[in-house]
Amino acid sequence: MTPPQRRRRQPLPAPLPPPPQAAEPPQEGEGKNPERLYIITGADGERAPLDLVTLIVACAETPSSAPPEQTAVLRMCRAPLSVAEVSAYLGLPFSVVTVLLTEMLAAELVQARAPIVRQQLPDRSLLEAVMHGLQRL
Question: Is the overall model pTM greater than 0.85, yes or no?
């Protein structure tokens, strides 16, 4: 037995024509705006020693004169976020984000914290105590 076929109530819209093809494919780096990144970072100076896993936490309210990128970082970092996450959410390269965060650290708008490192192997005596406690149940 074959399942019943459904019928559409409205006809399908006509397909859109394909976009015109460029004469040659864009080269790597074209279509991006490097001038915009320079405007965000300004002159390249000292950078804070930030890692991809360094946690950033906002510690100040957004100043009225803050650029949009700094405002976005302050909104995002109310809870700790890694530099990699900040970079991904802003859609900016890691190097640009480190310069941006260095400026914010100097202005004391954010704090940088080392990531929480967990012990690789649990204590053997703790595991034995748990095992003995489970065996008693």
Answer: no
